[in-house]
UniProtKB/TrEMBL annotation:
<dbReference type="GO" id="GO:0003824">
    <property type="term" value="F:catalytic activity"/>
</dbReference>
<protein>
    <submittedName>
        <fullName>Amidase signature enzyme</fullName>
    </submittedName>
</protein>
<dbReference type="InterPro" id="IPR000120">
    <property type="entry name" value="Amidase"/>
</dbReference>
<feature type="domain" description="Amidase">
    <location>
        <begin position="96"/>
        <end position="512"/>
    </location>
</feature>
<dbReference type="InterPro" id="IPR036928">
    <property type="entry name" value="AS_sf"/>
</dbReference>
<dbReference type="Pfam" id="PF01425">
    <property type="entry name" value="Amidase"/>
</dbReference>
<dbReference type="InterPro" id="IPR023631">
    <property type="entry name" value="Amidase_dom"/>
</dbReference>
């Protein structure tokens, strides 16, 4: 339906030739005899846009009286830990009567909105912007009793699984300086592993919770797509967006999931999720019988272990960990899903096309909380801003523009094939409770350096071969630490190995149960001896 209009305002800036000028880059034009009418219609939509732009925005109003922000600041050198793990320090005390997270300390990834706290997004493409609202997960962890102590560093625009790309500085692996903490939830994983906070809320669009959890030696859960609201979190590709907790143990992850899960009335990703406050993940994993896995069926994903990129030391460490499931009463069998190998390529096309549209301000079609202050700050792109962007961000834009121009049907095809992959996994989960594999193919690599594009991207290449596919399918996937393996460049340096446990859609309870039982019966820091 056309925009309704009666007359064009006299100061309307639209010119007669603008319609043709807009079409020209596409090799299109309007007929000369139609030019005047399209000028009128374009002028009318401009007036419509001016009207909407003048209206007040509508974002949730945080309760600053109940949850005041104390001492917001960029951390001093003395306050920084593990390189540059903090983005901003502050204190917001949670509800003293909170249930799920009473007494817990939390950081949130610096792509998650906290009203009044400048957000850096790991970048210097634009100056920091300051949200006016709290993300749903922020409100919920405060209501659950946790104190938030700051925002933790994320990688540059969340476009890396390394931890040297943030414009604010490098995040060091807690087990060995000079090695990656993983990304893009780099600072949060380091803070949790080092015991500085109990829990971090991270974002995961290809492995950004699970990769740093694996490399740092903590527990990180990417829930089922839509279980946790993404409201107030900077988006990359809306169909890959997931938010979830990182902690030092499975119980804290389960408790945090109880606190943050459920539809918030805003994010359409969550329309199929349970009512907030109705889950009982923490209670379930603490049940007395949950230290055993009698009757449980665990599938060893052949393709997850056999990929050429998987280091033999990582493979053997995870396989030894898997064997412990049998000691706990589970049936453990090898399974095969050959299309698992296609997961990284499918994810790459989805992320590049949709990610570039998001970066260029062209994403649309979702009901949710849109952070208009951020969009005004970063758009339109400038030559100087693009020059400062990390190569991974530039690559997303270049790849996305190329793919949409040369392969116009490919994004839709990846969505269709991604659904096929989802259905293949769901068929497996009719028989098996969980499927396991290495989270990352290698332990933490050395930090890279910001240089030529390929050199800058190389430390992250291949890290998501077993993680990104589950952003495509939406299945819950959790990384737990299960041992150590030597660094690739120095056999005397021992670094954590993560095992990924994947469950059926909405079957977080099974994933958590498997992880909890393994954790309670094995000491991953001592060669898998009984704890």
């Amino acid at each position: 339906m056309s925009v309704l209009f009666t007359s064009i305002s006299p100061d309307n800036p639209v010119k007669r030739e603008d319609a043709s000028a807009l079409l020209s880059p596409l090799g299109l034009s309007v007929e000369q005899e139609d030019e005047e009418d399209y000028h009128t219609l374009l002028a009318a939509v401009h007036d419509c846009a001016e009207t909407v732009a003048s209206l007040p925005d509508y974002q949730p109003v945080p309760d600053l009286d109940r949850y005041p922000r104390q001492s917001i600041r960029r951390p001093s050198p003395e306050e920084q830990v593990l390189g540059q793990s903090w983005a901003h320090k502050f204190l917001i005390r949670g509800n003293p009567e909170g249930e799920f997270l009473a007494g817990k300390t939390v950081s949130v990834k610096d792509c998650i909105a906290v009203a009044g706290v400048p957000q850096l997004l790991g970048s210097d493409i634009i100056p920091s912007w300051t949200p006016v609202t709290d993300a749903t997960v922020v409100t919920r962890v405060l209501d659950a009793g946790a104190d938030i102590h700051g925002t933790s560093t994320c990688e540059n625009y969340c476009h890396s699984t390394s931890s040297f790309t943030s414009a604010q500085g490098i995040v060091e692996n807690p087990f060995a300086a000079g090695y990656s903490a993983g990304g893009s939830t780099s600072g949060g994983a380091a803070l949790v592993t080092a015991g500085i906070v109990d829990i971090t809320i991270g974002g995961d669009q290809g492995g950004s919770i699970r990769v740093p959890s694996a490399l740092c030696g903590c527990v990180g859960l990417k829930p089922t797509y839509g279980l946790v609201p993404f409201s107030g979190i900077a988006s990359g590709d809306a169909i890959d967006d997931h938010a979830g907790p990182l902690a030092r143990n499975v119980l804290d992850v389960a408790s945090c999931l109880d606190a943050i899960a459920g539809y918030d009335g805003i994010d359409d990703r969550c329309l199929g999720s349970p009512r907030h406050g109705s889950t009982s993940f923490a209670t379930s994993v603490q049940a007395g019988t949950q230290r055993r896995l009698d009757g449980f069926k665990v599938g060893i994903l052949k393709e997850g272990f056999d990929h050429a990129a998987v280091d033999p030391e990582v493979r053997s460490t995870v396989m030894a960990a898997v064997e412990k499931f049998a000691d706990l009463g589970a049936t453990v069998e090898e399974i095969s899903i050959p299309d698992h190998y296609h997961g990284p390529a499918i994810w790459t096309i989805q992320q590049r096309v949709s990610g570039s549209m998001t970066l260029l301000g062209q994403a649309h079609g979702r009901r949710g909380l849109h952070m208009t202050e951020m969009e005004r700050g970063r758009l339109p792109w400038t030559k100087e801003g693009f020059r400062r962007a990390f190569p991974s961000t530039k690559n997303v834009i270049i790849n996305g523009l190329y793919l949409t121009s040369r392969f116009p049907d490919l994004y839709g095809k990846t969505v269709n094939i991604g659904r096929k992959l989802r259905d293949q996994y769901e068929e497996v989960f009719q028989t098996y409770d969980v499927v396991v594999m290495p989270t990352t193919p290698v332990v933490a690599p050395r930090h890279g350096a910001r240089g030529l594009p390929v050199e800058s991207l190389k430390p992250s290449m291949g890290l998501t071969i077993n993680t990104a596919v589950f952003n495509v399918t939406g299945h819950p996937a959790m990384s737990i630490p299960v041992g150590f393996a030597p660094a690739k460049d120095d056999s005397t340096v021992k670094l954590p190995v993560g095992m990924q446990i994947v469950g059926g859609l909405w079957q977080e309870s099974k994933v958590l149960r498997a992880g909890f039982a393994w954790e309670k019966n094995c000491n991953w820091k001592n060669g898998l001896d009984h704890s």
